[in-house]
Write a structure and sequence with these properties.
The protein has about 220 residues and is mainly alpha-helical. It is built from 12 helices and 2 strands, in the order αααααααααααββα. The protein has a two-stranded antiparallel sheet. Helix 2 crosses helix 4, helix 2 crosses helix 5 and helix 5 runs antiparallel to helix 6. The protein is elongated. The model has no long low-confidence stretch (mean pLDDT about 85).
């Protein structure tokens, strides 16, 4: 009831796009978004929801929420949509782009991104809770198939984050008279690690995961 026009739109989305078992996710999204927009005057909010760009942003958030398996992801979606609807044209455009990026990555990749934040480097509870994701996987001569599979999946997750511009490779300067190292599979210069890009940090700030030291 806090957001004008949402009731009828929710019914349309539920009826045409979202299977019945997913309606609870949409209701959670509307509730979370309502909390984000609760400080906006009703008349102003009604005006904002008459703008096609805001309706489009709301709809994209609803569709992503229908596929969201975790409450955390629904919170992230509501944060981005709330920023766009409550902001001006620039904020709305940024929210739409970041929402598109969020659609491309899964919850495990969100943990990988968050693990690069300064506040989480020093958070032993975060690292312990997510060590299955954040701990490096080393493949050596004689490694079993399970280890090789885990390493391949982690490499694929990192590679996609690099491709999306959320992470970038770190490359060590080769020592004098030493040739640079190349990846045997890709033929490209081998990165010594990865780090957050400005875009990756922007996404984490927009969904309220970054601390003050990461601004």
């Amino acid at each position: 009831g806090a957001i004008p026009f949402v009731g009828s739109f929710e019914a349309e989305v539920v009826g045409q796009i979202i299977p019945e078992q997913r309606t609870e996710r949409l209701e959670s999204y509307v509730r979370l978004l309502g909390e984000r927009l609760s400080t906006i005057e009703q008349d102003d909010l009604a005006t904002r929801f008459r703008e096609p760009e805001n309706v489009d942003l709301f709809e994209e958030g609803a569709i992503q929420t229908a596929r969201a398996l975790s409450e955390e992801r629904r919170i992230y979606i509501a944060a981005l949509v709330g920023r766009g609807i409550s902001g001006e044209e620039k904020a709305r455009a940024e929210a739409k782009r970041l929402l598109s990026l969020l659609r491309e990555i899964d919850d495990t990749q969100m943990i990988i991104l968050a693990s690069h934040l300064s506040k989480n480097w020093r958070d032993s509870e975060f690292m312990e809770r997510n060590k299955a994701v954040t701990d490096p996987v080393f493949v050596m001569m004689g490694s079993d198939q399970e280890t090789m599979n885990a390493a391949a999946l982690r490499d694929a997750a990192d590679a996609q984050l690099v491709r999306l511009g959320l992470l970038r490779g770190r490359y060590a300067v080769p020592k004098k008279d030493k040739a640079p190292k190349f990846d045997q599979e890709t033929g490209l210069l081998k990165a010594s690690g990865v780090s957050l890009t400005s875009l990756g940090r922007m996404l984490l700030r927009a969904i309220d995961l970054a601390g003050p030291e990461d601004y």
